[in-house]
Write a structure and sequence with these properties.
Radius of gyration: 19 Å
Order of helices and strands: EEEEHEHEHHEHEHEHEHHEE
CATH architecture: 3-Layer(aba) Sandwich
Distance between the termini: 25 Å
Shape: globular
Number of domains: 1
Number of helices: 9
Number of strands: 12
Strand content: 15-25%
CATH superfamily: Alpha/Beta hydrolase fold, catalytic domain
Helix content: 25-40%
Length: about 350
């Protein structure tokens, strides 16, 4: 169910419920649903006649585009659930009480986007915060919008919800294409993070990257903060969820840069992630998000073993679909506490923990 909406409702204008005030220009949500406005930057190519509100699944643009998406979320829904209408329901009327639905998408210029998010963030009653979600492999623009809205409700952290959508092919067969696309998007993501940090007025920025989305995020963030260290204090927490990254590349080339920057970063991995196993089989190289076998700590970064939590069939989206993980991430963001001070985690080994795990 939708919890205490806190800072996401009211004057911030980011989220409205069936009993709340609607954002000017939008119809109020129907009874039993809540509307969430999420903001985006993308380097997907736009074509008005295409699906996914014009954003192409496998076409890259040479520049960034911006906008917002209005998403309807059912109120009677367990945390982590992302119920979608079946394919055969496309001709049926909307059922906002049952399904997560995209209601509309708006395109904005860069200047209007930055002005809008600045206004929204400054209107928040308690703190000027935003979280930016970077999706993973086989995700469409719509997938990213719905997931961002769901996390905004379930995390309930009072932060403006934003997502960065790179041109994933959006299909399981598109792994090789997505690998190239994730590498290609790094420069655009770096430019977006720089813009957002400098002009959004957010004093607390939280990054949540999933799966292959960790590849451009880690490189873009390290490049940006090494070049512009004055922006470092704005990035309060970095979450690497089920990262699909070559384990040796991560340990030798990425983790040392994060440690040098003293970023507050947490990596969630699992031994039961079938998608990460498939990535290993494809590349014939260990992935850092796969925690099977001996676990080796990562200097300068907290490693959390999520193998014990209940997962769906693929076991890959546990960071956003499991109540336990959502609670841990929300606690980390709200309080800034490290793993040793958050309830629900045990240190391994207990006397001098090298990593953490859910019991």
């Amino acid at each position: 169910m939708v919890g205490n909406l806190g800072n996401l409702a009211g004057s911030s204008g980011m989220l409205t419920g069936s009993s709340g005030m609607a954002k000017p220009g939008n119809d109020p949500p129907p009874a039993g649903a809540v509307h969430v406005t999420v903001y985006y930057a993308t380097d997907r190519q736009y074509q008005a006649s295409s699906r996914s509100y014009g954003w192409q699944p496998n076409r890259a643009a040479p520049h960034l585009s911006y906008g917002s998406v209005l998403v309807s979320i059912p109120e009677k829904r367990a945390p982590g659930e992302l119920p979608l209408p079946p394919w055969y329901a496309i001709l049926a009327s909307d059922n906002a009480q049952k399904y997560v639905l995209i209601k509309e998408a708006t395109r904005l210029s860069r200047a209007d986007f930055l002005a809008t998010v600045k206004t929204r963030i400054q209107a928040a009653p308690e703190r000027h915060a935003a979280f930016i979600y970077i999706h993973g492999y086989s995700n469409s623009f719509d997938d990213a919008a719905r997931r961002t809205a769901q996390m905004a409700v379930d995390l309930d952290i009072g932060a403006l919800p934003v997502f960065y959508s790179w041109p994933s092919k959006g299909t399981l067969a598109g792994y090789e294409f997505d690998q190239n696309s994730a590498e290609w998007t790094q420069a655009h993501l770096q430019a977006f993070l720089a813009d957002f940090a400098e002009y959004s007025s957010a004093t607390d920025i939280y990054l949540i990257a999933h799966s292959m989305g960790n590849r451009p995020m880690t490189v873009a963030l390290a490049n940006l903060l090494e070049k512009r260290p004055e922006l470092l204090p704005l990035f309060k927490q970095v979450v690497l969820a089920a990262p699909d990254i070559n384990a040796d590349v991560f340990r030798d080339q990425i983790a040392p840069r994060f440690a040098s920057l003293k970023l507050s970063a947490t990596l969630y991995a699992s031994a039961n992630d079938k998608a990460i196993r498939a990535s290993y089989n494809f590349a014939d190289w260990d992935r850092i998000g796969d925690i099977r076998g001996p676990v080796v700590s990562i200097p300068g970064m907290e490693l959390v073993d999520a193998s014990a939590v209940i997962m769906n069939f693929m076991g890959h989206d546990y960071f956003a679909s499991n109540r336990v993980l959502l609670t841990d991430i929300a606690t980390m963001i709200k309080t800034g506490q490290r793993a040793k001070n958050r309830g629900g985690l045990k240190g391994i080994p207990s006397q001098a923990p090298q990593y953490w795990a859910f019991p």
